[in-house]
Amino acid sequence: MKLLEERIQKDGKIRNGGAVLKVDSFLNHQIDVKLYNEIGKEFFRLFGDEKVTKILTIEASGIGIACIAGQYFDVPVIFAKKSKSKNIDGSVYTSKVESFTHGKVYDIIVAREFLGPEDRVLLIDDFLANGSALNGLIQVVKSAGATLVGAGICVEKAFQPGGDLIRGQGIRVESLARIESMSETEGVTFC
Ligand code: 5GP
């Protein structure tokens, strides 16, 4: 998606020796709602004929994007919660996610009442790096016995293994900007 690529070139900031792209000024701290709207529209263009019944994302940065997309699909948006509780009971689906940005492993939970075998689920997230967040969501969809339609990602860091790992499972992943390489001196190169 040209618009997103141009915005990354203009306002993205590369940190941690080329490992992290900060998009805080337009995507996941301060939010450019018009850009979110174009992103939501694009996800609908890509997945609109898939009879999606639920959009599933993960808190916090996926929520806004998923909500805008949800308006186009006209379906509910569920966000997986990051749980600190040790007593996770049977009323939730759960799986584990390793945070790329913080390095910690945490549980994610989704209440069983919101997802079931009748659902066709589109996953949405802001970034795809090692694939842990997406894998956690995929496990939740599997536990629910729901059908996974695919995943819509804003920014895929294609130099990290997540995209290949998830596509390798036969899952459709559509990334609006795919970064081939990035460095603090050379900037960002798209695939
Ligand atoms: P993964 O689980 O695929 O390794 O990482 C995906 C999650 O980590 C995303 O939900 C996102 O919040 C965060 N993330 C991964 N890489 C980056 C990055 O370069 N920049 C930002 N802002 N977030 C990232």
Can you describe what's shown?
The chain has a single domain (2-190), classed as Rossmann fold (3-Layer(aba) Sandwich), CATH 3.40.50. 30% of the residues lie in helices and 35% in strands. The chain has helices at 2-11, 33-47, 61-73, 132-144, 162-167, and strands at 13-15, 20-22, 54-58, 77-83, 92-98, 105-111, 120-128, 147-157, 173-183, 187-190. The protein has five helices and ten strands; from the N terminus they run αββαβαββββαβαββ. It has an eight-stranded mixed β-sheet with strand order 5-6-4-3-7-8-9-10, sandwiched between helices. It has a two-stranded antiparallel sheet with strand order 1-2. The radius of gyration is 16 Å and the shape is globular. Helix 4 (132-144) links the parallel strand 7 and strand 8 (147-157). With 191 residues, it is α/β, with parallel strands linked by helices. The structure holds guanosine-5'-monophosphate. Guanosine-5'-monophosphate binds at residues 20-23, 28, 61, 100-101, 125-134, 157, 162.
